[in-house]
């Protein structure tokens, strides 16, 4: 079964008939999915359904055995994660990936460094004027994003010292420091308090509404997914089991049997 939706506007990200095998296990089997600008798509399913594998394929960490991935219409199936990041794709991971020895603000500055332009190490050491200008602009952008994420006042704190919920928000802030076209969020609400997950939902919502970013979200917190998503795709045993609005998914008896019955009670 496929879940391709062909209405305009053009998808930012599209997976066509993706298949991945691990020995005898079919982790993904004929999975299609497309994401449009400004939409927030929740990706849910029981443990082992293939969600992480699909994220790995979309972000370029794993090459599929079958099928293709397109980013803004370009076939990126054989492109590296770095190439995809440079063309507007960002991903966060289930396990946090912040630079613990850097401050929160520096984590966000580093996320913008790939643009280069500062003249390399020599320019850093000599404090070249161009380097100082880039640095100032990137710090200003970091401060703006931290404010938008409700992280004011945490810029000088070392990332390693943050409680889990704040670290999750910093990961999101870092992923959007350089505005993405498509954002893959892997369990962003894990370990957050109710208030923190509300804040996350509101930041993700603004990102899609105001900046037209397409978001794909894997999350076991079903209430969070239902609240934040405009559309939900359900994976089960490596296949798309259902796709629809949060209300449609909630009412779908196959989904309740496969997943919601245990996840949502
Ligand atoms: N590196 C691997 N080697 C072998 N099998 C793997 C590997 N990675 C995943 N699998 C298998 O592929 C299937 C899909 O796993 P995947 O981690 O993508 O599921 P998931 O939906 O992300 O699960 P979870 O919710 O537990 O994170 C599972 O059967 C898993 O055991």
TrEMBL record:
Higher taxonomy: Bacteria, Bacillati, Actinomycetota, Actinomycetes, Kitasatosporales
One Gene Ontology molecular-function label: ATP binding
Domain of life where this protein originates: Bacteria
PROSITE patterns reported in the protein's UniProt record: ABC_TRANSPORTER_2 (PS50893)
Keywords: ATP-binding, Nucleotide-binding, Transport
Xref: InterPro entries: AAA+_ATPase, ABC_AA/LPS_Transport, ABC_transporter-like_ATP-bd, BCA_ABC_TP_C, P-loop_NTPase
Domain annotation ABC transporter: ranges: 13-262
Pfam entry (one): BCA_ABC_TP_C
Record-given protein name: ABC transporter ATP-binding protein
């Amino acid at each position: 079964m496929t879940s391709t939706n062909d209405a305009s506007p053009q998808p930012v990200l599209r997976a066509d008939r993706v298949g991945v095998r691990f020995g005898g296990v079919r982790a993904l089997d004929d999975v299609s999915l497309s994401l449009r600008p400004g939409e927030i798509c929740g990706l849910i399913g029981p443990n082992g359904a293939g969600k992480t594998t699909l994220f790995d394929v979309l972000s370029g960490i794993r090459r599929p055995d079958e099928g293709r991935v397109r980013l803004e219409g370009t076939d990126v199936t054989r492109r590296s994660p770095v190439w995809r990041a440079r063309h507007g794709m960002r991903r966060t991971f289930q396990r946090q990936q912040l630079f613990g020895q850097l401050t929160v603000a520096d984590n966000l500055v580093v996320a913008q460094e790939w643009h280069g332009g500062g003249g390399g190490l020599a320019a850093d050491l000599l404090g070249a004027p161009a380097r100082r200008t880039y640095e100032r602009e990137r710090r200003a952008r970091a401060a703006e994003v931290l404010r938008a994420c409700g992280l004011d006042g945490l810029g000088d704190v070392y990332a390693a010292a943050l409680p889990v919920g704040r670290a999750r928000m910093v990961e999101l802030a870092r992923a959007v420091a350089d505005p993405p076209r498509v954002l893959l969020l892997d369990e962003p609400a894990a370990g957050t308090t109710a208030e923190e997950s509300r804040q996350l939902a509101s930041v993700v919502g603004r990102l899609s509404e105001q900046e037209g970013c397409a978001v794909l979200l894997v999350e076991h917190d079903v209430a969070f997914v239902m609240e934040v998503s405009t559309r939900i795709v359900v994976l089960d045993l490596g296949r798309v089991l259902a796709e629809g609005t949060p209300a449609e998914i909630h009412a779908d008896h196959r989904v309740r049997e496969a997943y919601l019955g245990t996840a949502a009670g």
